[in-house]
Design goal:
With 482 residues, the protein is an alpha+beta fold. It has helices at residues 2-22, 35-39, 59-62, 66-78, 80-101, 123-129, 161-227, 233-267, 298-301, 303-323, 369-436, 442-476; strands at residues 106-116, 132-134, 137-138, 143-156, 329-340, 353-362. A hairpin with a 2-residue loop joins strand 2 (132-134) and strand 3 (137-138).
Length: 482
């Protein structure tokens, strides 16, 4: 008997030693290093280092067009993409509450009733047959069971695994908040960009109308010259063809305007309706002066960078939690209530009182493939999150550098195009006058008009690109969400 007891003690000791050694065999996570953050330049290329940063300017101060401000304000209230993002925040918040709830014991009320009949020729049945409840009465063959009380279950967080999971959920929740801020910034930029494109199309349509007026006058002159035998039918047909081409361009621009208006309406979460705007002042708009600040400010200003950083933090915590799955877990189960095989006996206390308290320490010894796979997956996601963070920082820096270079070059481009348009407008007047006096043929008039039209269209597009570049830099600096 003593030898068996010693053997049992040795077995129990061996089990506990094995459980204690489980944690020692848990793998280590891959050590990661954020290279881009450590090597980010002190200032932007070809930019003087300055603390002034347009990204911190509120969007209502950055955009001064009252019509545009109203459109952005409506988009921030009704945009479906933004509403979807807000629900993602709610989902992440609920996950934090769930992880926090796992740290506390679970207590539930329990009521139950049942009936059981065991075989007489079993150990349980034989024992019941020999038990007398009262004199001369054995335990009933069909034995009922009625119970009620409280049951509790608690996983003791001895390795801080549950706390780590909660911290990971909190980091993910904060990243969804930054994701919402990035959607805000992107939405504001998208509305402004589409608004300027719409104004550009309006002005291009006006230019086509002006061009058509010139062609109609030239066509009338060609017809008069034909009647006077000073021009041929070919000249008349050329001007008619050019006028038809301009009419086709007019309808194409009208379709583009309709689609652009509906694109803005979609951003505002509303059905098609006219977009209020003032197109006359478009060409006189002076692009906003933009100050880039220093690259390190991007880490605090850009929501997508902060989102990527928080996702990286969450991924690291997920790895730590997955590693702690290799450790044994300690669970405590308790129950307290009343139990009897007849309802009338439930009130007979203390005989009907039942309780239990069990502590259980358990850990996986064999077949850890599921835990190992979960750990490897979390470790890979951590590395993936690092690369995503590095990529976001690098992309932000390069984007601002490209946009600032574009502003300088577009300023020069716009200046040269303005000079070209001015010269070609003068050329049109001269060509028309020569054509009326029969000192120039219709081809010279057509070529001058086409060149002037192309130059004016390019000038309008250059203005739109100037304004859109400023909007994109404002977004790239993290502007709009504050």
């Amino acid at each position: 008997m003593m030898e068996n007891l010693k053997i049992n003690k040795n077995i129990i000791a061996g089990v506990f030693i094995s459980l204690a050694l489980i944690g020692c065999k848990a793998p280590m996570a891959t050590k990661i290093q954020d290279r881009v953050k450590e090597t980010i330049p002190q200032n932007f290329e070809n930019q003087t280092a300055s603390e002034n940063n347009s990204g911190i300017t509120p969007w209502k101060e950055f955009f001064t067009d009252p019509n545009l401000v109203k459109l952005i304000d409506e988009a921030l209230k009704n945009n479906q993409e933004l509403m979807i993002t807000l629900q993602q925040i709610e989902i992440a918040k609920s996950d934090v509450m769930y992880k926090n709830g796992k740290l506390s014991p679970t207590v539930a009320a329990k009521l139950g009733a049942g009936i059981e009949k065991v075989g007489r020729y079993t150990s349980t049945g034989a024992g019941d047959a020999s038990t007398e409840i009262t004199d001369g009465k054995e335990v009933p063959e069909n034995l009922g069971n009625f119970e009620g009380g409280l049951v509790a279950n608690w996983e003791v967080d001895i390795w801080h695994k549950l706390r780590t999971e909660k911290q990971a959920a909190v980091a993910h929740y904060l990243s969804t908040v930054e994701g919402k801020n990035f959607v805000l910034s992107s939405l504001i930029a998208e509305v402004a960009d589409n608004y300027y494109e719409l104004l550009s199309l309006d002005n291009q349509l006006d230019i086509i109308h002006q061009y058509m007026d010139l062609q109609k006058k030239a066509l009338e002159v060609a017809k008069i010259q034909k009647q006077a035998m000073a021009a041929t039918e070919l000249a008349v047909k050329k001007f008619e063809a050019e006028l038809a081409k301009s009419n086709a361009t007019e309808y194409d621009l009208k379709q583009q305007i309709t689609e652009k208006e509906n694109q803005i309406n979609a951003l505002l979460g509303r059905y098609p309706q006219p977009i209020v705007r003032t197109k006359e002042s478009f060409m006189s708009i002076v692009p906003q002066t933009v100050y880039t600040g220093i690259p390190s400010q991007l880490l605090a200003n850009r929501p997508d960078i902060k989102q990527a950083e928080l996702e990286l933090q969450s991924a690291k915590l997920d790895v730590e939690a997955a590693r702690k799955e290799f450790y044994p877990s300690l669970e405590i189960n308790a129950a307290l209530g009343l139990e009897a095989f007849k309802p009338t006996y439930l009130v007979k206390m203390p005989e009907s009182i039942a309780y239990s308290l069990v502590g259980e320490l358990a850990g996986t010894l064999i077949n850890k493939s599921a835990i190992q796979a979960n750990f490897k997956s979390a470790d890979a996601k951590q590395i993936q999150a690092l690369y995503e963070y590095d990529k976001t920082i690098l992309s932000a820096y390069l984007d601002i550098t490209n946009q600032m270079s574009a502003i300088k070059n577009l300023d020069k481009y716009y200046e040269m195009k303005s000079q070209e348009v001015q010269a070609l407008d003068q050329g049109i007047d001269i060509a028309n006058q020569l054509f009326r006096n029969m000192r120039a043929d219709y081809l010279e008039v057509l070529m001058n008009q086409r060149d002037a039209l192309d130059a004016k269209m390019e000038l309008i597009e250059a203005k739109e690109r100037q304004l859109s570049t400023v909007v994109n830099i404002y977004k790239s600096l993290g502007g709009g969400w504050k």
